[in-house]
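Re: the 49-residue chain
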Amino acid sequence: MGLRRQFHVTVSRDSRLNGPKIDPVLRDEQLDSINPWLPTLAIRFSRAF
């Protein structure tokens, strides 16, 4: 169990968030406010048993 950091968040060219009805300033503010730390759970399985 731990944390991992997202280094980069982007919006793809064909996303609805790039459409004409979306306010680009508000979208960029929301993208900048994303918490970059995500909880992570890793489970390892072994065939040694």
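The CA atoms of residues 18 and 24 lie 8 Å apart.
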